[in-house]
Design brief:
Blueprint lengths: L1 H13 L1 H30 L4 H31 L4 H5 L2 H6 L5 H35 L5 H28 L2 H25 L6 H13 L2 H12 L5 H4 L15 H24 L3
Helix pairs in contact: 1-6, 2-3, 2-6, 3-6, 3-7, 3-8, 6-7, 6-12, 7-8, 7-10, 7-12, 8-9
């Protein structure tokens, strides 16, 4: 298994989009840290109360992690949208599949190889943003809340990885990238609309629509639960983001929903292994 993880890293480094992603991520983190420092400096000059400073740090945290999930999602999309069909087109997949191992093990090995590096990238991104807010804006961090938030933040791109790899078995590389990006964008847009609709009370039809969207691709729901846990769960700091317009958390996904996402990923992995085993190479 270590061999496939190493091979996946070599494959990623050969792609120019990987280098571009790292450069853009570094630029984002530098600009974000600079912006937070400037905003906190302006706040310090105005002598705001500790409660206002905490609210400002919460707003910065929400915005920073919102764009961080964008970066994590596009890292997944660009690195995995051609995992099967892309390698099939250049002949690499036929050489790898010729080894005397079951195809389903090869599919799982590829998933695990990508999952390791996606986890490393997303962890570095999450910790950088949270630590920047903690140091410069005074956001309070508790170890258990940060670990819960980090675990759920990592689960979001892994869910997207699972559906992107399944799509790569059936669709060409570009088509799979467009399909996965639109599906992710649809889930994200639904979450933003739900945050706005919560102010006047969502129509029952809209509530069913939001539920079906979350079941179809639960990435945004998992992200909102991650944010909720990081902000202190049911404490007032967690409830403070319930009044932030489209970034509000009108409903918090339950533990039962998180268990659903585990089953969701397991089913998609099973379907991917089965489809890959039957695919004509």
């Amino acid at each position: 298994m270590t061999m496939y993880i190493s091979a996946t890293f070599k494959e990623l480094t050969r792609k120019r989009v990987f280098l571009v992603t790292l450069i853009l991520t570094f630029i984002f983190l530098v600009l974000f840290a600079f912006g937070v420092r400037e905003l906190t400096g302006m706040t310090g000059q105005n002598q705001v109360s500790p409660a206002e400073r905490l609210m400002n740090s919460i707003v910065l945290m929400v915005l920073g992690l919102f764009f961080s999930q964008f970066l994590a999602a596009f890292f997944v999309l660009f690195s995995t949208m051609g995992t099967v069909t892309g390698e099939q087109e250049n002949g690499l997949l036929l050489a790898v599949a010729a080894r005397p191992i079951p195809r389903w093990k090869l599919y799982l090995a590829k998933w695990l190889g990508h999952a390791v590096w996606i986890t490393v990238y997303s962890t570095a991104l999450f910790v950088s943003v949270v630590w920047t807010i903690h140091i410069q804006a005074g956001f309070p961090i508790l170890a258990d809340e940060m670990l819960r938030g980090l675990g759920l933040f990592l689960w979001m791109p892994l869910l997207l990885l699972t559906i992107t790899m399944l799509g790569s078995v059936y669709l060409p590389m570009l088509g799979n990238g467009i399909f996965s990006a639109l599906l992710y964008g649809f889930a994200l847009f639904s979450g933003l609309v739900e945050g706005v609709a919560s102010y006047g009370g969502a129509h029952p039809a809209l509530e069913k629509f939001f539920l079906l969207t979350g079941l179809l691709l639960p990435t945004d729901s998992v992200y909102r639960r991650s944010l909720f846990e990081l902000m202190g769960g049911a404490d007032w700091a967690g409830l403070a983001i319930a009044d932030m317009g489209p970034f509000s958390i009108s409903s918090v996904p339950s533990n039962a929903f998180l268990l659903y996402t585990v089953g969701y990923a397991a089913v998609l992995l099973f379907l991917g292994c089965r489809a890959f085993g039957r695919k004509d190479l």
